Amino acid sequence: MSNVPLKTKSKIIVKFINGESANDISIELKISINQVNEIIEEWKRGYFNIEFDKEIPGEMRELADLMRDKELTIQNLLKDIFIIRYSAVWIRKEF
Question: Whole-model pTM above 0.90?
Answer without folding.
Answer: no
